[in-house]
Amino acid sequence: MNVYFTASTANLERDQAKYQKIIHCLESAGHHVSESWLLEKITNKLSKLTSREILLKNIQLLQESDFVVLELSTPSLGVGYCIGQAIANYRKILCLYPQGIDKNEISEIVTGSTSALLTYCAYDQDNLEQVIRDYIAGLNMDNLRKFNFIANEQIIQYIADGALKEGKSKSEFLRDKILKEFIHK
């Protein structure tokens, strides 16, 4: 699977080893980590792209990803923006934060989201690989299949309203509704 990973670059020198371990865990589990702006900074690849081009490239990488991994130990506007983009693109998001940091210390804008796409996990150097493996095992994306669905405006509005109310993507809301109301009934 393609993974989009990002974190704050504010303390990159201090956090670089931690970020590289996360990348290593993802790659050793057989996943491809996209060449995001964070990876370019870690590997000292000097980008000749403008800020706008970097933004567009990273949005595209995020859209092409199967899921997103974020490290939240340092507050970051860029990471917050990526969370918004990932939710808007219905990507599952693993939000990692170091054990010992109280989840309440993470921005309320981030932890206040009711999106079912977000999963928060505390980690340390010893359990990081297991945390990532457990999360990926729980994705269960192989069982999902994409198809076209043509609906009238009333159905589209019902799905959109229900998804918003339950903090889910429209497809998640519709899947859950069909399972609950028709299949399991």
Content-based structural category? alpha/beta
Listing every helix as H and every strand as E from the N terminus to the C terminus, the arrangement reads: EHEHHEHEHEHHH
The main β sheet shows up as: 5 strands, parallel
Please tally the β strands and state the result.
Answer: 5
Any idea what the radius of gyration is?
Answer: 18 Å
What top-tier CATH class of the largest domain fits best?
Alpha Beta
Shape: globular
Strand content: 5-15%
Corresponding CATH architecture of the largest domain = 3-Layer(aba) Sandwich
The proportion of residues forming helix, as a percent range, comes to 40-55%
Average pLDDT over all residues:
86
Tally of distinct domains = 2
List the total number of helices: 8
Using the coordinates shown, work out and report the CATH topology of the largest domain. Answer: Rossmann fold
Distance between the termini: 34 Å
Spans of at least 5 consecutive residues whose pLDDT stays below 50 are none
Across the major sheet, the strand order is 2-1-3-4-5
